[in-house]
Amino acid sequence: MSHDSRTNTIPVIDISQPSEAVARQVLEAASTQGFLYIKNDGVTIACKDIDDMFKLSQEFFATPKERKAEYAIHTEKAGGINRGWVSMQGESLDPEGQKSLQHRSPNPNLQPLPHPLSSHKDLISRFQLSCHALCTSILSLLGTALQISDPSYFASRHDQSQGPSGTIFRMLYYPKTTTSTSASPSSSSGSGLRIRAGAHSDYGSITLLFRLPGQPGLELLTPDRGWVAVPVNPHPADLAEPPILVNIGDLLSFWTNGMLKSTVHRVAFSEGGAGAGAGGKGEGEGEERYSMAYFCHPLDDVQLAAVPSKLIEDFADRGVEELRMQRKRLGLNDGGEDGDKEKVLTAKQHLDRRLKVTYGI
Ligand SMILES: O=C(O)CCC(=O)C(=O)O
Ligand SMILES: [Fe+2]
């Protein structure tokens, strides 16, 4: 498996005019690669808000470490479990330096936020709500394409006005690495590759990922071609704005008998430059990197029973082995620690299991 500039064929889908044909395109990508791009129409999520959020993130991560540490993850000041500032090596999937701030989301009454975020609550709320609106559109298209009798089956179970959920918005910063960290055996592949976020799949239903042109590094694991780079903008000549990258998380995979794919991905930089350089003109310079991820989760008490869709029922036999492997990879016993194979988990129980594996809490 070599690290090179092979790209993949993740489609860019325009969902601004939703139709059954568009829904089928979304399902096709979600059930094969587990990744798709949504053309950024600038309406659901304002381009200026994305730019302003990145500027805010850069300002935040530039503040002194002691200031950020006051809002450390899981502390009361930062809003409790799975909220707050994560420094280097705070996560098990984080071998060489990724820093992040986790927001409970979307929430107009934002958790206590550190400077300078505390002065930009309107922007942060608006951005998170617009992310959620995009997730809702994607979930509705999936419901349509799966021919569920209620096409809003997924979307309504993610209606955040109906109760708490595990939805998290995360601002990420990968600092420039130093010589000493690059020598670390856990983080270097020995082939000039630095792993900045270890191989993992996401916990939730769907994730929206925002990256900056010139800062690639994301790779997904394909069954036939190994690690493949995911460019920030796959068609820079046609798309003035990078499309929004969407990936399916574990939960939507479990929920659909493995029909939708929760694909393993990582962030890796080659020595002397970020990413595999596969993302178009100007990419591959510098090692510092910022990204933002919106991890959309269903309401805590949603039961993750198989979705009432003929397509999913028909898929059940094929998905069995895949789901078994996925549970194993995630450190989840078959049926859970309580050994109850048939038990239907709620979204919260599922998230708690993943957090336990990641943070040991
Ligand atoms: O920074 C990135 O591009 C991806 C981060 C990621 O995969 C995650 O936080 O789950
Ligand atoms: Fe991820």
UniProtKB/TrEMBL annotation:
<feature type="domain" description="Fe2OG dioxygenase">
    <location>
        <begin position="164"/>
        <end position="298"/>
    </location>
</feature>
<dbReference type="GO" id="GO:0044283">
    <property type="term" value="P:small molecule biosynthetic process"/>
</dbReference>
<keyword id="KW-0560">Oxidoreductase</keyword>
<dbReference type="InterPro" id="IPR044861">
    <property type="entry name" value="IPNS-like_FE2OG_OXY"/>
</dbReference>
<dbReference type="InterPro" id="IPR026992">
    <property type="entry name" value="DIOX_N"/>
</dbReference>
<protein>
    <recommendedName>
        <fullName>Fe2OG dioxygenase domain-containing protein</fullName>
    </recommendedName>
</protein>
<keyword id="KW-0408">Iron</keyword>
<dbReference type="GO" id="GO:0016491">
    <property type="term" value="F:oxidoreductase activity"/>
</dbReference>
<keyword id="KW-0479">Metal-binding</keyword>
<dbReference type="InterPro" id="IPR005123">
    <property type="entry name" value="Oxoglu/Fe-dep_dioxygenase_dom"/>
</dbReference>
<comment type="similarity">
    <text>Belongs to the iron/ascorbate-dependent oxidoreductase family.</text>
</comment>
<dbReference type="InterPro" id="IPR050231">
    <property type="entry name" value="Iron_ascorbate_oxido_reductase"/>
</dbReference>
<dbReference type="Pfam" id="PF03171">
    <property type="entry name" value="2OG-FeII_Oxy"/>
</dbReference>
<feature type="region of interest" description="Disordered">
    <location>
        <begin position="87"/>
        <end position="115"/>
    </location>
</feature>
<dbReference type="GO" id="GO:0046872">
    <property type="term" value="F:metal ion binding"/>
</dbReference>
<dbReference type="InterPro" id="IPR027443">
    <property type="entry name" value="IPNS-like_sf"/>
</dbReference>
<dbReference type="Pfam" id="PF14226">
    <property type="entry name" value="DIOX_N"/>
</dbReference>
